[in-house]
Amino acid sequence: MKHIFLYGPPGSGKSTVGKELAGLLELPFIDLDLETEKMSGRTTSQLMAEGESIFRDVESDVLLHVVKEPPSIIALGGGALLRGENRRCAEDNGAIIFLDADLVTLIAHLSNDDIERPLLTGNLETQLGSLLEKRKGHYDSFTTRVYHSGQFIPQIQKTPKDIACEILRSLNLLHVHTATGKRYDVKVQPNGLDSLGAWMQVRELGNPVAVIVDESVADLYADQTIVSLQRAGYGAHLLTFPAGERSKTIETVSQLWDGMIEAGLERRSTVVALGGGVTGDLAGFATSAYMRGIRWVGVPTSLLAMVDSSLGGKTGFDLPQGKNLVGAFHDPELVVVDPILLDTLSVREKSAGMAEVIKHGMIGDPELFYIAQQGWEFCARHLAELISRAISVKIQIVESDPYEHGLRASLNLGHTIGHAVEKASNYTLLHGEAIAIGLVAETILAEEVGIARSGLTRELIPVLKGFGLPVFAPDDISAEKILQAIKVDKKKVAGAVRFALPVDIGKIETGVEIRDLESALEFCSRGMVMARIDGRLPSHSKEA
User: Fold this and answer.
1) Which CATH number applies to 392-542: 1.20.1090.10, 3.40.50.2300, 3.40.50.300, 3.20.20.210?
2) Cis peptide, bond prior to residue 300, ω within 30 of zero
3) Per residue in 406-463, pLDDT tens?
4) Cβ 425 vs Cβ 477: under 8 Å
5) Is the four-CA dihedral 471, 474, 479, 481 of positive or negative sign?
6) Domain 3-165: which topology?
7) What is the pLDDT of residues 498-537, one digit of tens each?
8) Contact partners, residue 292, CB within 8 Å, separation at least 6
9) What is the CA radius of gyration of the chain?
């Protein structure tokens, strides 16, 4: 990777954001203004006193010097690219990200720093306004832009880390730092499946390779995957199993182990999980235990897997008593997200995936929720951003809490009741459909116990319905069935089920203990969505 240059007017946060970005990418950070002072032995004010052209000459020389350094994050001065040769130098040696902010934000930032700025002496607002007007055409010419305010909700003001994460999305540099210190990339790229073998080769992933895929996905993408691997010099072996949640059992895992042995997989071999969430869970768990752990790569083929289950290293299988009761944390080496693979999904499968997208918006990205509110046509026009935003929410959470000790529990929003509904339906409901029902039920519960903003359920339901998702459990699923499924939920501690409940769009409260599940289900029962219940609330307490 070449350099990443941050550019923008004074006060746009190039240095602050640059340091955050450098930390996320584990790259050096260079402030061109400071480097100019260091190499010239003079302050910016001293150089500018000799004439702006003198300063620009020195600045150009320093830029030519720093681009020869190893890949770095480089914060440029607010006029560093006014000269055509400087702009060409930056464009030839990396990507330029323009940090955009309105006048009020710029003034607020500049008023709180003590950096001497010769071009802004005097009345700050007047001088800055004049500078922005003078450079307007120049600044407008940069197309890759990241804003301090929300793109769809302008009143949202982003933190430097938010902006740094948005830069990663814009450059397709998403990655996950694991608890063990490893980092794996998440490549979101159309036709990325064709590059799978090459990306694995760059990462020196070993031979032979077993491609684990269910029978339905194998008919669509197995040949393309094998060709990509063989082009990169891999010997590839196909291991298939029947599609569906019913296959997510220890018997299927055992069959995969047998297949891996027959394929000659060794400690340095690699497994590719090609498919949806069930495939990722099974393949990830099988690799976590095979020869005490071998490496694997995720290639999610469903929207739900792309934005959720392929990330974070949670693997496992179901027992008759409930979902995912046996599993392990085993991170992949790479995740390849190819949006074109969604073209073969049914409308129902795409809608099911949107349930997890909406959930991620509720957890940590109001603008993602806004995109979902606009309906499928709008989402389809912004599909790459929608997928990347949802992935970013998941990444930030799993990095903060890799083993689900606290914050990561927010990802369980909608899942405590949703998993129970899914099991009670005998898996006739898709996972995302069950989660949609769980989102509504748990939002109702959050309102009733006074955690959520009043009216949040009314805001959520139309968004889910807009994608054809169910919002109530089917009539043939009794509250008793749901209750029994919840009672064996793996999130239960000391007899109480801990919920992650929404407070508002973009804010979640975790560790909410519900001991009186019968009363909780009363509040969440179908037909009672907008009604006030008779005042009897389930006992609950927030985890310390």
Assistant:
1) 1.20.1090.10
2) no
3) 677 888 899 988 988 998 898 899 999 999 999 998 998 898 888 999 999 999 999 9
4) yes
5) negative
6) Rossmann fold (3.40.50)
7) 889 999 999 999 888 876 667 666 656 543 433 333 333 3
8) none
9) 26
